[in-house]
Amino acid sequence: MDEIIRWWPIIAAFVAAIFWLSRLEWRGLQNSSEIKRLWNQRKEDLESAQRARDETNKILDEIRKDIKELLKKGTP
Fold first, then answer.
1. Quick one: pLDDT at residue 2?
2. pTM
3. C-alpha–C-alpha distance, residues 41 and 37, integer Å
4. If residue 17 lies in a helix (H) or strand (E), which one and from where to where?
5. What is the block-wise mean pLDDT of the chain (76 residues), using blocks of 10 residues?
6. What gap in Å lies between CA 39 and CA 46, rounded to an integer?
7. CA angle centred on 39, ends 33 and 43, rounded to 5°
8. E strands along 1-76, which residues?
9. How far apart are the C-alpha atoms of 62 and 49, rounded to whole Å?
10. pLDDT at residue 75, rounded to an integer
């Protein structure tokens, strides 16, 4: 019994250290998955922005063609 009482603080510190390290590892894994999710979200956002720019360029192209056509018809 005296041995257990003598080693009790060391055992408690060891268990606490293992618990702390497991929480640290869990937090690291959680952060890793969050980073992956953010990269996927960023990729989707970039693709969406590219589609929007392409659509805007297409509309501007049509407007430019219409303006050229109107200018050709309007000049005598």
1. 81
2. 0.60
3. 6
4. helix 2-74
5. 85 94 93 96 97 97 95 78
6. 10
7. 145
8. none
9. 20
10. 63
